[in-house]
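User: I'm preparing a small set of examples for a lab meeting where we compare how different chains pack in three dimensions. I only have the primary sequence for this one, and I'd like the structure in token form so I can line it up with the others. Please keep the answer compact; I'll paste it straight into my notes.
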Amino acid sequence: MAATLSAVSVPGVAAIEQAFELDPAGWAAQPESVHVAGTFNGWDREAHPMTRGDDGVWRATLDLDPGVYLYKFVLNGNDWVNDPVHSDASLEEPDGHGGMNSAVLVGQDMRDLPEAQPNHILAEAIRHDPDDFHHRSVVSEELLLLGLEVREGDAEQVIVMFGEASPGGAGPMKAWTPVPMSRESTRLGLDTYVALIEVDESSRSQAVSYLFLVQEGGAEAVLGQEGVVDLDAGPAAPKVPFTVDMTPSFATPDWAKHAVWYQIFPERFRNAETSNDPGDAWYENLLPWTSDWWKTHSHHGEAAGDDNFYLGEGNVWKRRYGGDLQGVKQALPYLRELGITAIYLNPIFEADSMHKYDASDFRHVDDNFGVKSPTPTQQVPGETDDPATWQFSESDKVFLGLLDEAHRMGFKVVIDGVFNHVGRSHPFFMDVLANGRNSRYADWFEITDWGNEEHWQPMDDPFAVHGKEGGIQWVAWDQKNGYLPVFKNDRETGLADGPKQHIFDITRRWMDPNGDGDPSDGIDGWRLDVPGDIAHPFWIEWRKLVKGINPDAYISGEIWSWAHPWLQGDQFDAVMNYQFAMATQDFFVDQQTAIPPSQFAKRLNRVVYNYPMQVALAQMNLFDSHDTDRLASMFVNPDRTYDGQNRIQDNGEDYDPRKPTPEERRRQLQAAAFQMTFLGAPMIYYGTEAGMWSPDDPSNRMPMVWEDLEPYEGVGVEFDEDIFRAYRMLIALRNTLPVLRVGGFEVTLADDAKSVVAFERRLGDDHVYVVVNRSRQGTKVDLPVDGDRYVNWLAPDQVELVVPETPEQ
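Assistant: Understood. Below is the structure token output for the 809-residue chain.
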């Protein structure tokens, strides 16, 4: 039976006016300003202001492409509220903070279409838009992602007929290679099918052709360049195929798709050189590496009393342990044994704090991480903002030596780029405090009040005056007149000219240290801190600089929400994939509030297919980081929002910091197995593989547990060899099987009753099936599998694999 054509309107691609309204009538306090922020503007709280009408209602109209958008209203620049009237509740999603985001559907609602019928295909609802990356994305010269939408329930099977490009019609379909498509999602009345195709080597770097074959019972339809073809005319009916040149619209580094990441917090990773240890400043106390984290160490200068741990004297914030880059270099064999291929270093530049997000000099590596200097590194005589005056300090040379050794051993190394703000001891900011408006850096920072001119002079303690009444006032990232002064930043264009040029010069310095056009002696990329605080035009221009120096460099941003505005090929290659982390916590960690496999499957599909595939394959898939509690402790403290109520000192009074139980450890390893087999590059926060556990900051930054050190003080604190072996085995599995690194993804089972989810990774003729049983008892599942030869890579003694005798079974 051929496909039946019906006169049904389907969504176009033209932008549609979408109105947003907020009526605060009856509110006790009326807002002074309202903006609408959402997935359409990268959650920019200032991008789209609303106007208050004579009736008191705030309104804004935006031109949006058809689709579903999440949003909230921002009151007075800071208070985020939901749309109480116009939000579509069926489309709302968690906001990651215990609430929900409002949602709106722009364009026609395909749920209004007539229900699907057996042996019938609604041809006009079949849609393939080559300009939509969800439908067509040239991932690389070897991989092509294709997508197709059909009416919900309208297809029993969808196949891509794939072949070399040829003029005119496609010819007999039997000459083409059939590639089955996977149903990626069902939403808003549409089923979306996808296929990740490995292109034959002979077809790479040239145009290839494809058609879609939709089958439902006896009904069949083919979609080509000229629309849907009725197959009643016979299998050789003329069909003009789609064609695509196998040149990616943009490329992400191939090595990043194969990476297993390891995040290192340098001050707490390993101390291999004691001569550079901190502890000289009044705000620093050097403690023994293996000392008990939870105790007060009065003999090392800590104030007695539990009240002084977080507050009061703040003992925990003053602690230093002496981790350094020599320690990182010393640990490279350990990381290679673990199977790590890429390293992300938290900030390494000169700074006062132990975390180094308050840089006092981007030009130089912190002397506590390299070679201790008798004077601050930023005071190298003759150095200015002109890179021609810059020199390499001894600490810089230690870092360059680490890079050389890491590259020799096969590692890639990226560092933290904190380009939005600096520490208040930064020499250019200090120059502003000493010279006021007369400073050559007066236009570099967000100064809100220049104060009295009589204070524009060098002082032993400028902060006894500035930041207070009568002194200079500034905008800081942490608080008004705080420790992290922000660079002047235009929300439309990005950083002001002065800091922009400085960041560009810093970028060149560390990507090509010798300045000879050969980036092999430099870093392999950047992880960008709070990049959402700088406008997109800056990042667009900065990416061109980075890729011009090293086309294979990697750029990843710290974006916690969905990050579409940054991941269209003109800014970042990837982000720290917190959306992956949130979904996996909701499924693997939570108990009373755990999401069922069916919901987990939908969220996984969104994580995979919501970005261009070349981005999805290069994402940093993490569970924990320096900004969250540790993965092991998440299992001890389930049923919380991700990164929520986990700081004991201010919002986690009931957070349990105890050691995980054996059952909680098994669940952690189950999550790790999923991480290593899912699409995207897994990232491990230092010590997770060694069994470390802890609440959020500051305790998530405890010194790394090492097997070769004396026993640690504290109950149960030790290097966990069993956990390490398990991680090493799982990483080895990923490194062994290319299909786990660059293969496609399809959920093949989501059984809520059994608490089982299964998915397939596919690359050419290679298939890997992963089955996750979240319940506490064994179970039997039936999976549709391809092939006649099977290897159980994980636990042959725990899983009974029954191979059907016939393909139909």
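A couple of notes for your slides: The CA atoms of residues 136 and 146 lie 5 Å apart. Residues 1-13 have pLDDT under 50 and may be disordered.

User: Perfect, thanks.
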